[in-house]
Each structure stands twice: as C-alpha cells, then as structure tokens.
TrEMBL record:
It comes from Catenulispora yoronensis. The gene is ddl. It holds the Pfam family Dala_Dala_lig_C. It catalyses: 2 D-alanine + ATP = D-alanyl-D-alanine + ADP + phosphate + H(+). GO terms for molecular function: ligase activity. Residues 103-310 form the ATP-grasp domain. SUPFAM superfamilies: Glutathione synthetase ATP-binding domain-like, PreATP-grasp domain. Belongs to the D-alanine--D-alanine ligase family. This is D-alanine--D-alanine ligase. Cell wall formation. Its EC number is 6.3.2.4. Pathway: Cell wall biogenesis; peptidoglycan biosynthesis.
Length: 316
C-alpha cells in the first residue's frame, strides 16, 4: 500500500465535457487504487467543500474538463482551502485556458504558432457579419481553423476550406463560447505531447501521432474507439521527436504550468512544430493521449498518478 492517506478525485462538473470528465475520473481512480492508494471520487456540488473541510484528503486529483476544471476556478478554491492538488496555479490555468492569451505568450517566447484573430460574437452584431468575415478572409488566407477561444475536446471546432464554409463554422463555434479563435490551418502531422513533473522538473512523455479517419480530430474522433489511429510513439525521427518534445516543455514552462499538461501541435513538412493549444487538465480516458504516451514510455499509469499525487502532497 502507498504511504498516502486518502486522495479525492474530482470528476463531473457542469461543462459540456462532463461525460468525458467522469470517464477520466473513473480511470484515474481505478489506476490509483491499483497502486495501493485509497481513493474517493467526488463531483462538483454544494457538498464538496464541507466534505473537504470535515475530512481533509492528503491531495486532490482534478479530472475536470472544460471551464469547470481548466479556467482556474476550482484550483483557486483548493488553494484557498490549502488542499494540495495535481495541477497548475489558478493564474496559469486562466492563461492557458484562454487560447488567444496563451498564443500571445507562446509567440512572445519565440515559439511558432499559426497567425490568428479572436473575434467576440458581439463584433459581428456591431459591425455586420459580412464585413467582419470579409476582413478575416482578406487577412488570413484559407484554409482556416475555427474554435472556441475557451473550451476543449474540439467542441465547436471546424476546419474551413472555402469562404462559404466560414459562416456555419462561426455559428457552431458560438454555441460553445462567446469568442471565436480563427487561425491559419497549418497542414502536417497532428501531434500531442504530454508533460509530467513528479519532482525532478517537467519532462515530455513520448509524442503521440494522431490520424483521424475523417481527417479532423473532432469530439467523436477523440472519444469513439476505432475512429482514430494513434501512433505511440509518433512516427518521427530523432530530430523531429526532440523538436516537438522541446516545444511542449517550453510551452509548459512559458505558461507557468505545474505537474501535468498536454500540448497539441502540428509538425509541418519542413519539420517545424506549430503550437496550437495546451491543456492543463488533459483527458485521461481509455482513448486519451496522455495514457497512450505513458504506455509508450513503459510507465504504469497507477504508479505515475501515485507519483504525481505524492509529489504535490509533499509540497504541503
């Protein structure tokens, strides 16, 4: 058995990604139990804070996705309660969760990220849809990629290959957020690199290459078994592997992240990695990328999660 006492895994919440969060939470809890850790799963509700105060856990492992778990709110509450948790500081979460702000920081650090514009829904109302879309396509050449400025799991995201596809993509995006991020669609191999820190500093796990049957790694492709082919480790040469792993660790450090993150990127034909976004609460389901990366590194997930929890508990 682990020397840890009780660990609380947070799963659920009220975001669009609730179902994914529940699946992640169950997988993490099962893995931790397999590593000898006492685990309790709790949802985000009015009973949570009294329960944490009445019977304080050694640590909390949030597996909340979307705004519920990635915008820094729950991290801020846990910090107020002085409860150790696996994850980044509230400020770092807020920065990473807002994709335009994260891209600004990444570009300022000298890393490549596609050109973009962030446009609130109100701008279309104030200035006129046609005029705004004409300005976008004049400044950013097709193809484009549209996604919510804040959110995850590719909900509301769409590739735009023709001018005629752009209005529908904007409508779909605004169903999930009030601001749309429109960026150049970089062609190349889709890569995800997870970063973990179990006390010796952030290190990249083997990169995972993603090949969706539909050509787009959307919500269905992410969470439906058989719709996407994964290569773990990615089919990269040593130079390419180092480039994508270095970018992920640099992104993790640039954004001030802690303990765990996953960077999504495109590796173009010239071998340049392009930062797309970073996840401070990466999916941990049976089809998620961090578990695949851990498997490629011959890491036992239960041991990895236990090491993360023990590390954050030791900082108390």
């Amino acid at each position: 058995m682990s020397d840890l006492g009780r660990v609380v895994v947070l799963a659920g919440g009220l975001s669009h990604e609730r179902d994914v969060s529940i699946r992640s939470g169950r997988r993490v809890a099962d893995a931790l139990r397999g590593a000898g850790v006492e685990v309790q799963i709790r949802d985000i509700d009015a009973a949570l804070l009294p329960a944490l105060l009445a019977d304080r856990p050694d640590a909390v492992f949030p597996t909340l996705h979307g705004a519920t778990g990635e915008d820094g709110a729950i991290q801020g509450i846990l910090a107020l309660l002085d409860v150790p948790y696996v994850g980044s500081s509230p400020a770092a979460c807020r920065l990473a969760f807002d994709k335009p702000s994260a891209k600004e920081a990444i570009r300022a650090a000298g890393l490549a990220t596609p050109d973009w514009v962030a446009i609130p829904k109100t701008t279309f109302r104030d200035l006129g849809t046609q005029a705004v879309l004409d300005a976008v396509t004049a400044a950013l050449p097709l193809p484009l990629f549209v996604k919510p400025a804040r959110g995850g799991s590719s909900l509301g995201a769409a590739a735009v290959r023709t001018r005629e596809e752009l209005p529908a993509a904007m409508v779909a995006c605004f169903a999930y957020d009030e601001t749309a991020l429109i960026e150049r669609h970089i062609t190349g191999r889709e890569i995800a690199v997870s970063v973990v820190d179990t006390g010796d500093g952030p290190r990249a796990l083997p990169a995972v290459e993603i090949v969706a049957d539909s050509g787009i790694y959307d919500y269905a492709a992410r969470y439906t078994a058989g719709m996407t082919e994964f290569f773990a480790p990615a089919r990269l040469d040593a130079t390419e592997m180092k480039a994508v792993e270095d970018l992920a660790v640099q992104a993790h450090n640039t954004l001030g992240l802690s303990w765990i993150s996953r960077t999504d990127l495109i590796l173009d034909d010239a071998g340049t990695p392009w930062f797309l976004e970073v996840n401070v609460a990466p999916g941990l389901t049976e089809t998620s990328l961090l578990p695949l990366a851990a498997g490629a590194a011959d890491l036992d997930l239960g041991v990895l999660y236990r090491d993360l929890v023990e590390t954050v508990a030791a900082t108390k």
